Amino acid sequence: MSVEPNSFETSGIPVCTVDDLIAESGVCALINGRQVALFYFPDRERVYAIDNFDPVGRANVLSRGLVGSTDERLFLASPLYKERYCLETGECLDNPEVVLDTWNTRLEDGQLLVDPRAVNHRLLRESA
User: Is 70 within 8 Å of 59 (Cβ atoms)?
Assistant: First the structure.
């Protein structure tokens, strides 16, 4: 069974409050034993959750990356080798073979809830 992007069928894991997040910057959280990078965009009222592991640099550092946008897509640039990953889908904009897991999130009463099930858009494309 694959998890659909933006579906939120579970109650979600409470991870932190909105006050614990840094606007347009990353923080790292441990969710079900995995390091997850969280990026908060208050103007969109949205938190993006993406794997913290950089598969090129082979280190858990993506929460320290820089955010930017291209063609109206928000991306994260790795602090090591500067690969860009779409925050929505986890797809590497510089190497289509690389896709990171993402997690569905929801802000509710000042609390960040994260679906414990990861979404991998490459697997969703292949199963369609």
Answer: no
